[in-house]
Design goal:
The chain is an alpha/beta fold and about 325 residues long. About 30% of the residues lie in helices and about 25% in strands. The chain has helices at about 30-45, 55-60, 75-80, 95-100, 100-115, 135-145, 165-175, 175-185, 305-325; strands at about 1-5, 15-20, 45-50, 85-90, 115-120, 145-150, 190-195, 210-215, 225-235, 240, 245, 250-260, 270-275, 285-295. It has a six-stranded parallel β-sheet with strand order 1-4-3-2-5-6, with helices on both faces. A six-stranded antiparallel barrel has the order 7-8-13-12-9-14. Helix 5 crosses helix 6 (about 135-145) and helix 7 packs antiparallel against helix 8. It starts with a strand and ends with a helix. Residues about 5-10 have low confidence and may be disordered.
């Protein structure tokens, strides 16, 4: 997949079949939409494309808005590349772009990027104040030479609910990481660097790595203990086809705790600590990726470090069994 920056006019030499969205999470609903774009492009002998934005539009329009994102920008572009779509058009969402009407936005897509077919998500709206709807897009398309197609919606799952980014966020904030993975099509993950911690874990036989996420806007799941798989990453990311890729060096099973360390009177500070099974060595300042497999229990306060140690021993036994299964 090639990423085309918005600063390059006439970036595409081929007519495009495109869809538009922020695509946070690149979940199964997004992938279902993108597959339809790919199918239409194949039928017409065109190039498939997604049009998206590096930053959440509300971050541009509201300076104090702090979204809870499922993906960083780099993660999103990598996940989009895995869908098989031919290219990704990255538009900087500026105040000027926000003022474009839906027709002006479609005109830009046609003139600057060669979009000839636009596949519209079942509930997606764009343009200034998002005031126009599908029938308006079809009318503008006829005037501009763009065929507008309404996408099919991914059928609801057994709960009767549609797959959406907001639903995934809700599940993660409840600690339901396994359920979120079913909607995402992959395990939810955090990436970050190991920072200096309190080093209490090693005194009770469970050294932990304290993870500082790469992006403060990345959503952190609910406080509690989780079964996880942890991948050690190379220190220097590589740029391939405009995408930032980080090589995986080794993967370990582990257990992770998110919370305020009440037994150790940590106060309001929230920490993310992970213990890697079978690992020996120094992790300080190393980049890691943590994939959430299963929530196992809520965080709780213990009367002593020994009581905490005994609980962690039980956690380890349970999580090893779970991950082996």
């Amino acid at each position: 997949m090639n990423c085309i920056s918005s600063i390059l006019p006439q970036a595409s030499r081929h007519p495009l079949v495109a869809t538009i969205g922020f695509f946070d999470g690149v979940h199964l609903g997004h992938r279902y939409l993108i597959r339809q774009v790919e199918q239409v492009a194949q039928q017409r002998g065109m190039t498939s494309a997604v049009v998206t934005f590096p930053r959440h539009p509300r971050q541009v329009m509201q300076a104090d808005y702090a979204p809870r994102l499922l993906n960083t920008f780099e993660e999103k572009t990598l996940l989009l590349s895995e869908t098989g779509v031919d290219c990704c058009i990255l538009l900087d969402f500026t105040p000027e772009l926000a003022q474009l009407s839906a027709r002006q936005f479609m005109q830009m897509l046609a003139t600057d990027y060669g979009v000839q077919v636009l596949v519209i998500g079942y509930d997606h709206r764009f343009g200034h104040n998002r005031s126009k709807g599908f029938d308006d897009y079809v009318r503008y398309g006829r005037e501009l030479g763009i065929e507008v197609i309404r996408a099919f919606q991914l059928p609801p799952d057994e709960t009767g609910l549609a797959v959406s980014s907001s639903r995934v966020r809700q599940l993660l904030l409840q600690g339901e990481v396994a359920e979120a993975a079913q909607l995402l099509g992959y395990r939810y993950f955090l990436q970050g660097e190991v920072e200096e911690g309190y080093q209490v874990g090693r005194t009770i036989g469970f050294p932990t790595a304290n993870i500082l996420p790469n992006d403060p806007c990345k959503l952190i799941p609910a406080d509690g203990v989780y079964a996880v798989r942890v991948t050690l990453l190379a220190d220097s990311p590589q740029s391939v086809d405009g995408l930032v890729r980080t090589d995986a060096l080794a993967t370990y099973d582990g257990m992770l705790c998110i919370g305020h360390r009440p037994t150790l009177h940590n106060g309001p500070d929230r920490s993310i600590e992970v213990h890697l099974f079978e690992f020996q060595g120094d992790l300080y300042h190393r980049p890691l990726r943590v994939e959430f497999v299963q929530f196992t229990r809520r965080e709780q306060r213990f009367d002593s470090l020994e009581a905490l140690r005994q609980r962690i021993l039980l956690d380890e036994q349970q999580i090893r069994t779970l991950l082996r299964g």
